[in-house]
Specification:
200 residues, alpha/beta, Maf protein, 22% strand
Length: 200
């Protein structure tokens, strides 16, 4: 069974393939499906943006389409960067520039609680929709640490392990990350849906 991921982010694609392969699902990127461009993410929540992307990819390809919208929510910054995590500070910034800007905006703040949130939406050509969400609580570190992961991982310490997200192996990260948790919930729902379809 083949799904299209409503993204061309190579690292997201690897994570999705790793976790969904257990269901025998092949995941391809938008570019591999022959789709260029992406819809404007006008949602005010991660869930709304995931649905916008999944619907657009499904309409463009006629394939089951899975989208993830995720980001970092920092309490001391009023929830920022939130749904603007990938665009924090404006267009053209690198991951490193974004997390350094975040650290600058956190200077002098004692309250450093934060959480990564991932919302997943999967739209099927028949209109069926499956959604899931995962949260990984933690804190913003005073300085970057580690060389793994991507995005804001180098400045995020995971609450339950006390380690930086970028200090973990891919397997360790998948076990506790917001996207890993959302995907496991999604996999459970997808497995149930596929069983129902096969039994019908």
């Amino acid at each position: 069974m083949k799904f299209v991921l409503a993204s061309n982010n190579g690292k997201k694609l690897i994570e999705m393939r790793d976790i969904l392969s257990e269901l025998g699902i092949e995941v391809i990127s938008l570019s591999e499906a022959g789709v260029s461009g992406s819809p404007e993410e006008t949602g005010v929540t991660f869930a709304e943006n995931a649905l916008i992307k999944a619907d657009a990819a499904c309409a463009a390809t006629g394939m089951p389409s899975i989208a993830d919208d995720s980001g970092l929510v920092v309490d001391a910054l009023g929830g920022a960067p939130g749904v603007y995590s990938a665009r924090y500070g404006g267009p053209g910034l690198s991951d490193e520039q974004r997390y350094l800007l975040l650290l600058k905006n956190m200077e002098g703040k004692e309250q450093r609680d934060a959480r990564f949130v991932s919302s997943i939406a999967c739209r099927f050509p028949d209109g069926t929709l499956i959604t899931a969400e995962g949260v990984c609580p933690g804190t913003i570190m005073l300085a970057p640490s580690g060389s793994g992961g991507f995005g804001y991982d180098p400045v995020f310490r995971v609450e339950e392990t006390g380690r930086g997200m970028a200090e973990m192996t891919a397997e360790e990260k998948n076990a506790i990350s917001h996207r890993g948790r959302a995907l496991r919930t999604f996999c459970g729902k997808l497995r149930e849906h596929l069983l129902e379809v096969n039994d019908a």
